[in-house]
Amino acid sequence: MLQKPRGTRDFLPDEMERRRLIERRMREAARRWGYREVCTPDFENLELFTMKSGEGIIGEMYVFEDKGGRQLTLRPEVTAAVLRMYVNEGKVLPKPIRWCYFADCFRYERPQKGRYRQFWQFGVELIGADTPSADAEVIMLADDTLRSTGVTFDLHVGHLAPMKHLLADLAPGDQRAIMAYLDKHDPKGLEAALVEKNLTHLAEPLAALGECRTVSEVFEIAGDVPERARIEETFALLDAQEIDYRPDFGIARGLDYYTGMVFEGFAKNLGAENQIVGGGAYRLAHLFGGDDVASCGFAIGFDRVMVSIGEFELAHGPVVGVVFTPDARARALEVARAFREAGIRAEADLMGRGMGAQLAHAAKTADFAAVLGKREVEAGTVTLKDLHSGEQQERSLEEAIAEVARHGAC
Ligand code: HAM
């Protein structure tokens, strides 16, 4: 039996309905904040991501050459693509630009629970606002969007300036390497790298940064940084709006383009792969031929949110099985159409089954049977059977539709 590729999943209808419901809630949250949906291609020129996204992601990409010899890749994330689109199409738009997306991404990673090779991100990018209010808006929107899904999570908010200040004397390559260990929460790798690079004096302050619970402690460890006032203002805005978060200046982020505020969220009930959102302030547009515009955004790992929420019952509208004798088929199709026009899901037999077999099938798949035989066709009626209670009554088509509609939103 042929299997799907490693790290991918199939979704059956119940799961798809649950996914669509949660997806709708996320889109709705973003809409309320003024973020409008955009869409970029599933694949991009490779260089879009090699320019700045970071070593990790480059090693994990699905790279291929097309028939014209172009180096392409399936997108491993959406931010770079959205900023490319901004440079191509959006430079003249009034700022700030508020965009959101729901898109599948591809990373060649070792699959495990919550880590897939094809996964979906719901994200936003706020382009052209370089203020504490912009940073705070993006964090608050991430919080609002995640809350709307029902997932429970811890939100950590930090800023790269104190960590970069501690690492200021390092060569850029070494700085990136150290930050990658911090991002992966790999203390052994970090220790080995610090020993190898003769930087063991940094072990303690780096560890302490992640432990700080107040902003002032951070500056005691890392020294005063020019960004201090901005960091304090962002945090004050979050506090004033009673956002439930924890300062965390140990956040390094895996992607290389971040420049300032960074944040991550962790689902409370997931294992190792518990990071459900990541984001922050960054600059990318200038690399793609645009202006050096400040941007800020996040992406939620939609699949991890779904794993965290778990299975739940879906309230679906009533389903009608239209059951008919062979000579009532034309009328049955009219009746099915009338139910559908009223927004009700109606399914008619396609298998040439007898009435008994049609009713047995409806009992498994529907809430009501609309039965049509010779008598109903002549009288212009429908015998409506409630398949849960077993009650049945002959009614006009309008009454039958009204009765079914009474049983819930369609
Ligand atoms: P990221 O942290 O690489 O950030 O990914 C965002 C989220 O995608 C992660 O927190 C995680 O929930 C989910 N995710 C990542 N890899 C996988 C995987 N293999 N399987 C399942 N879920 C995964 C970004 O992608 C940035 N573009 C976020 C951003 C937007 N920054 C600014 N704007």
UniProtKB/TrEMBL annotation:
GO annotation terms (biological process): histidyl-tRNA aminoacylation
GO CC terms of this entry: cytoplasm
CDD domains, per the entry: HisRS-like_core, HisRS_anticodon
GO terms, molecular function: ATP binding; histidine-tRNA ligase activity
Domain named Aminoacyl-transfer RNA synthetases class-II family profile: residues: 6-326
Statement: the UniProt record of this protein carries the keyword Transmembrane: no
Binding positions (L-histidine): 77-79, 107, 121, 125, 253, 257-258
InterPro entries for this protein: aa-tRNA-synth_II (IPR006195), aa-tRNA-synth_II/BPL/LPL (IPR045864), Anticodon-bd (IPR004154), Anticodon-bd_dom_sf (IPR036621), His-tRNA-ligase (IPR015807), HisRS-like_core (IPR041715), HisRS/HisZ (IPR004516), HisRS_anticodon (IPR033656)
E.C. number(s) listed in UniProt: 6.1.1.21
Keywords of the record: Aminoacyl-tRNA synthetase, ATP-binding, Cytoplasm, Ligase, Nucleotide-binding, Protein biosynthesis
Catalytic activity field: tRNA(His) + L-histidine + ATP = L-histidyl-tRNA(His) + AMP + diphosphate + H(+)
Subcellular locations according to the entry: Cytoplasm
Record-stated family: Belongs to the class-II aminoacyl-tRNA synthetase family.
Designated name of the protein: Histidine--tRNA ligase
Organism lineage string: Archaea, Methanobacteriati, Methanobacteriota, Stenosarchaea group, Methanomicrobia
